[in-house]
């Protein structure tokens, strides 16, 4: 089992080693990566082993004190102090490990959000391009429809013009075939002109009569 002094020297050496390891381990909380490095894993495991080893040393010191009823109060006080330091180091180790994990979770969440935003941006860009292509296609369809309607209207006008021309030709041909029809039409036009002249003269006389007699 060894003497109290020998075992306590081992405890002091392990305490010094723990403080050095904790100092190195705390740096990972300041420069945390998304995944633990091999160095971080090794240091974490080594720290936990050293702390467990110190726990065994504390048990040995406690057994020495219990088996020696004449143990001095100073040694009991030293044992108590070693136990308190061990608890402090355990707490420091757990806090640092928790801080590293929290920072790692934050980084992973940030990376995940950035990735989602990037994917959403790509999807939005694709959707925008698809919408623009759809609107362009719709515009082309409208233009094609207007052009088709214009051609149909043009064809209708051409057809109507051809029909009117055909009807006019038929009327002319009919007039040419019927003897004396042109003479009759000329007389009708002459009579219409005479009637219009007589009516205009009558209206003029009435107006002059009213003007001078009013």
Summarize the structure.
This protein is 91% helix and 0% strand.
Report what the structure shows.
With 214 residues, the chain is mainly alpha-helical. It folds into two domains: 4-125, Methane Monooxygenase Hydroxylase, Chain G, domain 1; 179-214. Helices cover 91% and strands 0% of the residues. Helix 1 (4-30) runs parallel beside helix 3. The longest helix is centred in the middle third of the chain and has 105 residues, at 73-177. It is rod-shaped and about 165 Å long. The termini are far apart.
Write out key terms for the chains shown:
214 residues, 2 domains
CATH architecture of the largest domain: Up-down Bundle
CATH fold group of the largest domain: Methane Monooxygenase Hydroxylase, Chain G, domain 1
Structural category is mainly alpha
Low-confidence residue ranges: none
Q: Using the coordinates above, name the CATH class of the largest domain.
A: Mainly Alpha
Morphology? rod-shaped
Mean pLDDT equals 83
Biggest β-sheet, characterized?
A: none
Question: Count of DSSP E strands?
Answer: 0
How big a fraction of the residues is strand? under 5%
Order of helices and strands: HHHH
Radius of gyration: 57 Å
Output the number of helix runs.
4
Instruction: Give the tally of structural domains.
Output: 2
Q: Assign a percent range to the helix content.
A: over 70%
Function: Involved in transport from the ER to the Golgi apparatus as well as in intra-Golgi transport. It belongs to a super-family of proteins called t-SNAREs or soluble NSF (N-ethylmaleimide-sensitive factor) attachment protein receptor.
GO molecular function: SNAP receptor activity
Family: Belongs to the GOSR1 family.
Keywords: ER-Golgi transport, Golgi apparatus, Membrane, Protein transport, Transmembrane, Transmembrane helix, Transport
């Amino acid at each position: 089992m060894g003497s109290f002094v020998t075992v306590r020297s081992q405890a002091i050496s392990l305490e010094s080693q723990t403080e050095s390891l904790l100092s190195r381990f705390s740096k990972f909380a300041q420069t945390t990566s998304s995944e633990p490095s091999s160095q971080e894993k090794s240091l974490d495991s080594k720290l936990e082993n050293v702390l467990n080893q110190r726990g065994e040393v504390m048990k040995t010191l406690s057994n020495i004190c219990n088996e020696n009823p004449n143990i001095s109060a100073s040694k009991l006080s030293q044992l108590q102090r070693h136990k308190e330091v061990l608890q402090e180091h355990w707490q420091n180790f757990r806090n640092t490990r928790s801080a590293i994990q929290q920072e790692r979770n934050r980084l992973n969440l940030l990376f995940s959000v950035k990735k989602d935003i990037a994917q959403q941006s790509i999807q939005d860009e694709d959707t925008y391009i698809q919408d623009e292509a759809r609107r362009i296609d719709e515009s082309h369809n409208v233009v094609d429809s207007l052009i088709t309607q214009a051609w149909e209207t043009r064809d209708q006008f051409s057809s109507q013009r051809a029909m009117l021309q055909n009807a006019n030709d038929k009327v002319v041909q009919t007039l040419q075939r019927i003897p004396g029809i042109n003479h009759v039409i000329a007389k009708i036009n002459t009579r219409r002109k005479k009637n219009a002249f007589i009516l205009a003269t009558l209206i003029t006389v009435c107006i002059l009569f009213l003007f001078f007699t009013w």
